[in-house]
Structure formats: structure tokens, C-alpha cells
Amino acid sequence: MKRVWILDRSEPQAADILSGLSSLMYEASVWLDAAAMLEAARADAPDLIIVEQGIDSMGLMDVLRAIKRLERRVPVIVVAEQTSTQGAIESMREGAYDYLPRETLPGGLEDAGRRALSNDGGMIQAIGSPGPGDVAELGAVIGKTPEMIEIHKLIGQVADTDAPVLIQGESGTGKELVARALHYNSSRRDSPFVAVNCSALLPESLEIDLFGRGGEGGKCGPSRMEIADGGTIFIDEIEAMGLENQARLLTILEDGYFERPQSRKRVKIDIRVIAATSASIVGRMKNGDFRVDLFYRLKVVSVFMPPLRDRRDDIPCLAEHFLSRAAAKMRRDINGIFPGAIELLQEYPWPGNVRELEQAIQRAVALNRTGVMMPEDFETLCEGQESWQGLSFGQGAGLEAAVRYEFKRRFAAEETDISGTIVSEMERVLADAALAAVGGNQVKAARLLGISRNTLRKRVEKV
């Protein structure tokens, strides 16, 4: 019969865990002393260990490291009273099989326990213990919904590997924050983290920025790839990268070097590549604008960032985090958020995702007069809500509604030249979309839009 050991703070706490295993055939033992349990495990390890995150006798991470050192590999499930980003990441990085919020008991534990006790338990390969990550950088990867907990766990599992990662999701969902979390929880954390946005540069500029300049007079300082040597490079909006640059990136992933443009000189490089996209790369592959082999080399690990409208239960903790940060930065004494304001924030569809929520909080903090965030502090959202109601960006938001909303927002902020600002922004977005659709070819993009190449270049440079 399989043996399960439960390490908890008290017998009543352990009883909750036992109820989650009631349908499994096992022999259970409850331990209240971590040191005693570990000593017994060194002599005769069980088939599964379940650890409550708030154990007092030893720290959770110390217990996980000690279990990893056992002669026999034992799957460990962590049950968390208060889930946290860093708790999930560190637990998985230290080799935990799973990380479960206590509120998922009993069903969640029953499923995880069954998987862990089957055969080899589906054990995750132990991936080292590089120590605490940069909590300041990780703080904004916030969320307690099941989708976000799974992302935190995945970060912990793969952070200290060199596997390429492809992060997909709408603009503003926090893809770069996930990339930073992967970097700062890896053994590369003391080396550079370099970010580049492919859609922010013209193809020729992107080529030089990423790979440098070869040929005569080619000295222009180190390229982004060289700066990132030993660390991580984060390539955002990778769907806008032209085919030639895609080929160079593929060579780095496969062979660990690249050749400078207009040069045969090979540059050896040791980097981890994390890419992100808010577009459909599959569609671009069908059109021949994105290499199939590069896509599969990047997608060794895939992360999908859900839009904020699909995880509204995370809005309160995100709002509190952004409020604390904005109040400190602006030196404002804000005491909290009124429940009615939270309800308003949860009802709004957030087309700009987490980025838009942060900007809304910043504006509200700057203009607040009462010391408490009230619904009226978010009146611009209320004004725009009717225009956005029921719109789905996955199915087309409606251009007229978008323009009306943007006008109301800027009018409320007492901006001038609203027409010029909105038209300029739309022209830039159109230019970016056209370039992405034709793989960065400026001539084709200009022809699609019915403008000259010089006009296209000027619009892109408005970023």
C-alpha cells in the first residue's frame, strides 16, 4: 500500500488534507515536526509527502531542499493557506510536484495526489536552487486565480533551465513581467536581461540593434545580443521580425553564434531566448512571413497570458499593488480603495488589460482629494463603459466605439488637439499592422496603405 506523509502545524489542519485523500488507497502518517519527519524519511522514505506552507519548525524551502537530497526521489505537494507569486515560483523551483491553494481541497488534492502516486509520480526534474529572485521585479506578476497560479508554477519549473519560452497573449497582459520573472529566478539572474520590441524599429534598424553592423566602418558599439551574453534576451512582438533576422535568431538557438550583417565574422553567444507575441504566428507561417522551424524552436515552453477580463478576481489585488506603488512614487497619502470602486473596476472590460488598469490607478492617485479611492475617481471609465460594453477584441471591437471612448477619455483629461493626437496614433497603429502583415517589408506596407515609403517611416517613428 502506498504511504503518504503529511507535515502540518496541527492535527486539525492535517485533517483537512486527509479529507482530500479519502478516495485514494494509502497509509497516512501525520507529522508536526519537520526535523523528525526528515530523519525518518532518510531511513525509509514514503511514496508522497504533503507539506503545509505555514509549517513552523523549519522553513518550507529548507524542507523541500532536504527532501530533494533524499536517496529516493519523493514527490512533494505544497498546500498553501495564502498563495503568493513568489511562494509558487520558489516551491516549484525547489522541486515540488505541485502547489495547491487550500481552498481547492478536497478535489484539487485528490487529483494531484492520484497523479503523484501513479508510477513515478510524473516527477518534475529537480532544477536547482539558485536562491531568492528579485522580488521587486517579480511583484507585478500578481494574481491568485487558477490561471495565474498555473503560470507561477510553470515559471518555477522552467526558470533555471535554458529552454526557450514563447509567451502569448494580448497587449498589456504582462508578458515582459513573466520574462523578467523567468530571468530573475534563474542562475542567469546576475547577468543582463535585455528587452527589445521588434515592432518599435524599422527592419534595418532592428537588424543593427540586435546583431550589430559588419563591413567597413562597422563599429557602432555592442549589439543587444552581445550585451545579453550570459543572460537573457526578451524579444517582444516577434511576429514583426523579418525573415533574415529570423534566420539569424534560429542559428543562435541551434548553434550558439550569429554572423554580423554584411560580414562573415561569427560571434559566439551564450543567451537564453524568451519571445512574446500578441498576434497569430500560425497565420503568419501560413503566409510565409514566419519560419516554421523558428516557431517550434521557440515554443519549447509555451505560456499563455489570459486577458484581464478573463481573470476579474485578480483585479482587487492588482489594484492594491498598483495603488501602493503609485502612492509611494507620487508621495500621496492614500488609505485604500472603497469597495464600490473595486466593483466598478471589476465590471469594466479592460481592453488595455493590466497596463490600462495600472494607468487608471495612477491617474486616480494623482487626482484624488479624499485619501480613499472612490468610484468617482474612476469617472472616465464610467463615461467610456457604455461605448465599450459587450465589445470583444477577439472578434473586432468596433472602430467607432473605440474612437468615441478615446475621445471621452482625453476630453475628461482636458487635453488639447484631441483630433490630431487620435489620428496620429491610429496612423502609427496602421503602419505597425501593415508592416507586421508583410514581414516588415516597407515597400509592400506602404503600397497596402496607399502612402509613400517616407510617410510610412515617419509614422512608425512616432512610437
List the helices and strands and how they pair.
Layout: E1 3-7, H1 11-19, E2 27-31, H2 34-43, E3 48-52, H3 60-68, E4 76-80, H4 85-93, E5 98-101, H5 107-117, H6 135-138, H7 146-158, E6 165-169, H8 175-184, E7 193-197, H9 203-211, H10 224-227, E8 232-236, H11 243-255, E9 257-259, E10 266-268, E11 272-277, H12 281-286, H13 292-298, E12 301-305, H14 315-330, H15 339-347, H16 353-367, H17 379-388, H18 399-412, H19 418-437, H20 442-449, H21 453-460
Parallel strand pairs: 1-2, 1-3, 3-4, 4-5, 6-11, 6-12, 7-8, 8-11
Antiparallel strand pairs: 9-10
Q: What is shown here, in short?
A:
The chain is α/β, with parallel strands linked by helices and 463 residues long. Helices cover 46% and strands 12% of the residues. The chain folds into four domains: 3-132, Response regulator (Rossmann fold, 3-Layer(aba) Sandwich), CATH 3.40.50.2300; 160-305, Rossmann fold, CATH 3.40.50.300; 312-398, Helicase, Ruva Protein, domain 3 (Orthogonal Bundle), CATH 1.10.8.60; 421-460, Homeodomain-like (Arc Repressor Mutant, subunit A, Orthogonal Bundle), CATH 1.10.10.
Task: List key phrases describing it.
12 strands; globular; 463 residues; Helicase, Ruva Protein, domain 3; Rossmann fold; alpha/beta; five-stranded parallel beta sheet
Summed up, the domain count is 4
What percent strand? 5-15%
Quaternary class: single chain
CATH fold-level topology of the largest domain: Rossmann fold
CATH superfamily of the largest domain: P-loop containing nucleotide triphosphate hydrolases
Q: What is the helix content?
A: 40-55%
Count of alpha and pi helical runs: 21
User: Would you identify the regions where 5 or more consecutive residues have pLDDT less than 50?
Assistant: 120-139, 386-398
Name of the CATH class of the largest domain? Alpha Beta
**Which class of secondary structure composition applies to the elements?**
alpha/beta
Question: Biggest β-sheet: count, sense, barrel?
Answer: 5 strands, parallel
Shape: globular
Mean pLDDT: 82
The CATH architecture name of the largest domain reads: 3-Layer(aba) Sandwich
The strands making up the biggest β-sheet line up spatially as 2-1-3-4-5
Radius of gyration: 25 Å
